[in-house]
Amino acid sequence: MNEAQRHRSLLDHLNSHTFITTNDYMKMLDISLSTARRDITKLAEEGKLKKIRNGAEVINHDIPLVITHVPSSFIPEEKDIECYAAKQRIAKVAADMCEEHDSIIVSGSNTTFLMGEHLLHRDVQVVTNFMPLAYQLISQDHQSIIILGGQYLPERQITISPDEEAADDHKSRFVFFTGTGVTAAGIHTSDLLVYMAEKKLLEYGDRIVALIDSSKVGKYGGKLLACTSKLDTLITDEGADQSTLESLRQQGVNVVVV
Predict the structure, then answer these.
(1) Host domain of residue 25
(2) Most CB atoms within 10 A, among 25, 129, 220, 255?
(3) H or E segment at 126?
């Protein structure tokens, strides 16, 4: 791959994931550290990206980056959710995994939010840091909800606690979560605040279940949130990169395509 092709690949990644670490860029294109640094530096000098410590992030000339995470309303609507039909199917399959009397941890995303309607009025305890999901369940008189405490981040609609033991008392059968990329290495996220909030949650479930639509399968998405050895199940939809799915299966991950 020549320099122009590498630059295009890097800029395409930033357009969809907002940032990338130098190490992830090296892995994505199988290039050396010096080449990765040179590419980032050159594109930064050309004003095509912003060079940050140990990586690069997108330059948005139209709107501040911080509001790109904000939905148009507190409760996600269909128009806010990309790949809505696929995510709805994924959410239903995830909810159907739960049995009566289960306790589950559900992290914050549009896909995990869609699980709510399938969990309503069932005897399933939902532990979450995602306020729209909590509100949906409370407003529909769901009987067993635990909201994890901490500082509320309105742009992400989650709570995050500096206390490393904030969820230590919660032991659940499943943790349902999502990410911005899936590779043979595991589930990645491009949002550092989400990474901080959810990394600890993944330790409190017997089975870790990722809900990822096909557009993210086979793509690097920043920091590695959950390595493949920790992942029990990946639920995705048709159209997902088959080589990535096969690699995950070979490593023992239960891959469900809906």
Answers:
(1) 3-62
(2) 129
(3) strand 125-128
Backbone angles phi, psi at 50, to 5 degrees: -105, 125
* End-of-domain residue from the set 16, 38, 62: 62
d(CA 16, CA 133): 25
Cα separation, 229 vs 205, in Å, equals 14
Report the CATH number at residue 24.
1.10.10.10
10-20 pLDDT per residue, tens: 998 888 788 89
Q: What is the CA radius of gyration of the chain?
A: 19
Is residue 166's pLDDT more than 70? Answer: no
Which ranges constitute the DSSP H helices of the chain? 3-17, 22-29, 33-45, 84-96, 110-113, 116-119, 131-139, 192-199, 242-250
Query: Which tokens belong to 55?
Result: 């990586």
Q: Is the pTM of this model over 0.85?
A: no
Other CB atoms within 10 Å distance of the CB of residue 11: 14
Look up residue 249 and give its two tokens.
């299966």
Same domain, residue pair 35 and 130: no
Between the alpha carbon of residue 144 and those of residues 94, 101, 103, 111, the distances in Å are 18, 10, 9, 21
Q: Which residues pair with 151 in a beta bridge?
A: 160
Does residue 90 share a domain with residue 55?
A: no
140: which 2 tokens? Answer: 């529909």
Identify the three-state secondary structure at position 223: strand
Task: Count Cβ neighbours within 10 Å for each residue of 168-197 and write b for 16 or more, e otherwise.
Answer: eebebbbbbbbbbbbbebbbbbbbeebbeb
